[in-house]
Amino acid sequence: MANIPIYDNTGKQVGDYEIDVQSLAPVISKPLLHEAVVMYQANMRQGSAKSKTRSEVSGSRKKMYRQKGTGNARAGHKRSGVRKGGGHIFAKTPKDWSYRLPRKALQTATRMALAAKINKEFVKLIDSFSADVPKTKVVVDMLKALTIDSSLLFVIDQYDENVYKSARNIPKLTILPVSDINAYEILRPKQVLMTKGALDKFIAERVKKAEKEA
Question: What is the pTM of this model?
Answer without folding.
Answer: 0.84
